[in-house]
Amino acid sequence: EYTGPFEGNVPHGEGEAKFTGGMRYRGRFARGLMHGRGTLVAADRSAYDAEFAEGHPVRGTLRRPDGSEYTGEFNAAGEMHGEGRCELQDGTVYLGFFEAGKFTSGQILDAEGYPVELIMNSFKQQ
């Protein structure tokens, strides 16, 4: 279900869409895809407040129901990928690089901001 302007029978411009499975998106569309600034809320209440390109988030913030928050880059699957910062509910911060949803290199800080561990793996930016 979509509310907003169309161009050539597809969503184009500022609008709101509700998808099967409970996801909903409010923001910019281009040629029928999420494209531009928007907010995507999943059925589990995870929310992307991000810049979207060709239907997926590319850079922004992901807030999860468990209280964790990631700010940085995403891959086409919406996973943490590239440079970013992930803060867990307990205050632990992962600061550095992520690949396919996993922390690969950088620094881990405790809730008070003190370094816990430094991880340096081979990470090739693409």
What features would you describe in this structure?
By secondary structure, the chain is mainly β. Helix content is 0%, strand content 61%. The strands form 2 sheets. The chain has an 11-stranded antiparallel sheet with strand order 1-4-5-6-7-8-9-10-11-12-13, with no helix packed on it. Strands 2-3 form a two-stranded antiparallel ribbon.
The secondary-structure class comes to mainly beta
Work out the number of β strands: 13
Strand count, sense and closure of the main sheet? Answer: 11 strands, antiparallel
Q: Return the string of H and E elements.
A: EEEEEEEEEEEEE
Portion of residues in beta strands equals over 45%
Radius of gyration: 17 Å
How far apart lie the N and C ends?
Answer: 36 Å
What spatial order of strands do you see in the largest sheet?
Answer: 1-4-5-6-7-8-9-10-11-12-13
Measured as a percent range, the helix fraction is under 10%
pLDDT < 50 stretches? none
Basic shape: elongated
Number of helices: 0
The overall pLDDT, averaged over residues, is 93
Which terms summarize this structure?
126 residues, eleven-stranded antiparallel sheet, two-stranded antiparallel sheet, 0% helix, elongated
List the helices and strands and how they pair.
Blueprint lengths: L1 E2 L2 E2 L2 E2 L1 E6 L5 E7 L2 E9 L5 E7 L2 E8 L5 E6 L5 E8 L5 E7 L2 E8 L5 E5 L7
Antiparallel strand pairs: 1-4, 2-3, 4-5, 5-6, 6-7, 7-8, 8-9, 9-10, 10-11, 11-12, 12-13
